[in-house]
């Protein structure tokens, strides 16, 4: 396993980390084993938190806390909320400190709230002064200019952002600024929610100026596969591999949502478009697995109990689509959004019926943002 210096933090992190989003919905004992196996294979960067992923990670931290680098996230924009969340993280992780505390920042308006007097940066700085966190970071899924603005305040040590063979804008807009400020670079969505083969996407990222990447892993097979993809010599891609990267880039270029909600929103029908066509963890599981494997998946109990309610709510939202086509007109990447919504509408009724047939109780669940 290769390790890289995470910018000015000085932390040495494995080039492959573990994202906690998909891991949060699997059965707890399996989640614990997944983290432990990742650690055994040399992974030391763990990104969270989602659902109960902190609890699943805590046994691994007990094995060697100093070797592990743990990042957690919050949407809180106020001082008190951040301090509360930091304390919650420490209890769940059963540790005395979090290495990197990331502030979710999806817009410039959110950044202003974070930076305002009594905002989340003040809270994070207080937590750092108390030794509860060591470094402060920012996270976003869409508008990378928000991270650029955050870096230029001088307050940000690490950023986590999307980068893959399709979504390459960070190479020109974000990474040069982060390098100037010696800010740590963590990549989310390296495989674009499973759309890109790991054998294609992960080696390509190994050759980019990043420090670590955190694909979602939801099985022990994923851990073994992803580690095998990055433990390569030479690191450089062969001409044949470069050609395969380009083939997949062209194939997916007008299929991958860039989560630029400020462009396709506001939808007149109020549809959460990026969630429906790209960003829904549970639906992506279904797309990647198929119905039977989805039903047989070792879901964490709380996630399973909320599945029927989750898909029913999403279906009701999708049924409001008037097919006006404005979203497609606005999309700069020419995505066939209406076709994706049609697939969404076709997929959900049989899925919901199958969940009901299984007798899985439907209870309200808190929506996580991944």
List keywords for this structure.
49% helix; two-stranded antiparallel ribbon; 2 domains; 370 residues; alpha/beta; TIM Barrel; eight-stranded parallel beta sheet
In summary, what is this structure?
This protein has helices at 28-40, 53-63, 79-93, 108-115, 120-129, 144-151, 170-173, 175-181, 198-206, 220-230, 239-252, 261-264, 273-279, 281-289, 291-296, 301-318, 326-330, 337-357, and strands spanning 3-5, 12-14, 18-19, 45-47, 69-74, 98-104, 133-139, 158-162, 184-188, 212-213.
Look at the structure and give the CATH class of the largest domain: Alpha Beta
The CATH superfamily label of the largest domain reads: NADP-dependent oxidoreductase domain
Tally the helices.
18
- Report the uncertain regions: none
What would you say this structure looks like, in words?
The radius of gyration is 20 Å and the shape is globular. The protein has 18 helices and ten strands. The chain has two domains: 3-244, TIM Barrel, CATH 3.20.20.100; 261-357, no CATH class. It is 49% helix and 12% strand. α3 crosses α5 (120-129). It has 370 residues and is an alpha/beta fold. The protein has helices spanning 28-40, 53-63, 79-93, 108-115, 120-129, 144-151, 170-173, 175-181, 198-206, 220-230, 239-252, 261-264, 273-279, 281-289, 291-296, 301-318, 326-330, 337-357, and strands at 3-5, 12-14, 18-19, 45-47, 69-74, 98-104, 133-139, 158-162, 184-188, 212-213. The strands form two sheets. An eight-stranded parallel β-sheet has the order 3-4-5-6-7-8-9-10.
């Amino acid at each position: 396993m290769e390790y890289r210096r995470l910018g000015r933090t000085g932390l040495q992190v494995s080039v492959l980390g573990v994202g906690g989003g998909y891991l949060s919905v699997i059965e707890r004992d399996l989640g614990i084993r997944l983290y432990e196996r990742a650690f055994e294979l040399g992974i030391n960067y763990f990104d969270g938190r989602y659902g109960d992923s902190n609890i699943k990670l805590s046994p691994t931290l007990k094995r060697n806390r100093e070797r592990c680098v743990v990042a957690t996230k919050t949407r809180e924009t106020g001082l008190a909320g951040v301090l509360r969340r930091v304390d919650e993280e420490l209890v769940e992780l059963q540790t005395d400190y979090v290495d990197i505390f990331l502030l979710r920042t999806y817009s410039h308006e959110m950044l202003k709230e974070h930076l305002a007097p009594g905002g989340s940066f003040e809270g994070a700085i207080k937590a750092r002064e108390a030794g509860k966190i060591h470094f402060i970071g920012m996270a976003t899924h869409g508008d990378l200019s928000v991270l650029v603005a955050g870096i230029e305040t001088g307050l940000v040590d690490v950023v986590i952002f999307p980068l893959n063979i399709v979504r390459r804008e960070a190479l020109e807009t974000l990474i040069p600024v982060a390098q100037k400020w010696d800010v740590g670079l963590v990549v989310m969505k390296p495989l674009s929610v499973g759309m890109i083969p790991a054998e294609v996407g992960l080696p390509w990222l190994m050759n980019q100026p990043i420090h670590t990447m955190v694909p979602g892993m939801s099985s022990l097979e994923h851990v073994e596969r992803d580690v095998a993809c990055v433990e390569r010599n030479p690191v450089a891609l062969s001409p044949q591999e470069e050609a395969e990267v380009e083939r997949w880039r062209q194939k997916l270029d007008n299929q991958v949502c860039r989560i630029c909600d400020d462009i396709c929103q506001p939808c007149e029908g109020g549809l959460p478009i990026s969630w429906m066509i790209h960003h829904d963890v549970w639906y992506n599981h279904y797309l990647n697995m198929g119905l039977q494997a989805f039903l047989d998946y070792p879901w964490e109990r709380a996630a399973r109990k909320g599945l029927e309610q989750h898909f029913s709510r999403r279906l009701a939202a999708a049924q409001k689509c008037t097919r006006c086509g404005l979203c497609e007109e606005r999309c700069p990447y020419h995505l066939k959004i209406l076709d994706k919504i049609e697939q969404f509408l076709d997929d959900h009724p049989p899925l919901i019926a199958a969940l009901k047939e299984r007798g899985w109780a439907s209870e309200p669940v808190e929506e996580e943002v991944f």
